[in-house]
Amino acid sequence: MGETITLRGADDFEFSAYHEQALAPRKGGVIVLQEIFGVDRHIRADVERWAKAGYEAVAPSLYDRREPSFTAGHDPEGLTAGVTHARATPLDQALGDIAACRDFLAERGKVFVVGYCYGGSLAWLSAGKLEGVAAASSYYGSLVQANAALQPLCPTIIHLGRTDPGIKADDVEAAVLAHHTDVPVYIYEDAGHGFNNESPERYGEKAADLARARTRELFEAA
Q: pTM of the predicted model, to two decimals?
């Protein structure tokens, strides 16, 4: 059963995080990075999936300085609120909170990062800017293309949906491969943005299952 814990960021701010111990023989720790909607039931469900797969998992609430324990629905109002918080949250601040999660998990083994949407961008940035991450998996992050030249410090993979209207998969792939021929970029032909999220309007079961399998393979090989 998951629990809410408190961690201290690089700026000494205490933020909340959803945490669950490994529910199978422990393989390491996973930092699960939220979509713009906060640590909602979908992110908590992802934490539980990682725990069942043998990973101690923690999902930091990255907007706590602006609105503690923020979550939003997948509607226009929730989208606006989430985007507002994401844009107003400095990237270095978010990376500092991710580093605090890394330090919390590192006491017990390797630490991995997986992120979705807003968190997908942060997963890519974490791979390139944070020491001590064993591997990273980035899902449909809008900032990946603009930061494609960033050199990952660990094995990293990228997942994109072909029908994502806001992120052009071919353009992201071209930008990444122009700098890193060793970074796999997986494009899921029948999937759109948010395909790992199990809300009915977004979920792409086939793509989600394959992306999770590839992510588990990445982590287990690291």
A: 0.97
